[in-house]
Amino acid sequence: SPSPFATLLRRSKFASYDPKIGQVYTTFGGDAHRGNYGVKRPLALRTREPFITIASVDSLQQQTEWSHAEREARWIRKVAEVSSSPEVADGSDLWKKLGPNAKSQWKVNSDFALGTADPASEVEKASQDHIQAGIPNIDAMSPKQFQRYLESLRALRPAFHKFVEAERARTSKVQSSNLLEQSRYPTEIHKIFLSNHSAQRVNDPDSKILEQDAHPNGALTYTHLTKLEHYFWRQPLPGRVVGKMKTLTASFAGFNTRLPPSQSEGLQPIDWRSLVERGVDTGKGISKFRVSLMEVSTPPRVVGHKPDGISNMDVRMHVSSHGRLDMVRANPHLPWTRDYVSQ
Question: What range defines the domain where residue 137 resides?
Fold first, then answer.
């Protein structure tokens, strides 16, 4: 039978600890006051909302190596308060690694409007995305991994030849069983073969391979808010236009955001010279803003020999001014509330 310590460890949250995965730990109440985080010894940290990352539970010096993680926890909270579903920036490293999943959309059934897309085209697009998703992403491979992948493909040449012959007998899309001649015709037969081969390897009862399914926004958020939900659940917050380059730069909720001129409502950046010389601000750059778009180019590298924090990530936030729009709304209440109906 397992020992009491093994049973306790398996039931504890610290059982998920892995030094190669950057995780943020916290504790509450009296445990926070005593520095008890579930490790071998109390930690010298006495704050109301403690957040830490642990590099080593027991080092060579018999010490627990940890560092502060309030910045990471606070940043995630701010994003959850103001943002909707982030998107992947086109052409970024994350966009290349995700492949066809980079622009996958969250399908939401709405009671307010009917779908406008053709169901047949949606089914065809879904099948194409499924074919693409089953193929290993060569853009995410290192040079050595790519060479090993090429060697494995060369070993599949006889099986691919049989697959082409079977497809030629089944459908008219395959023009020839000769691989050289067939390569002249633009078809998806090679992708279908690779997708089926990958599915067989993953679904084999004796297989030890896990299908990789990267999170579409680097695990920045797990919520899927529609534009309507984002409008009513994320209230506009005050901000200020602080500069202008190609677009206006607005300081909003602790972020340096981009404000397109078409959504600025005529706001002007701060006149820093007048502010320094006279100590007077015109106030023409103050308004309330909402997040209109959040793009993830480089997510933080949280898995590796030395996981990073949020310092090396690249996330860009676009906002729009809603200072005047909220003042002209005929009904300021939420649509599904009693106050909205009685207005």
Answer: 113-203
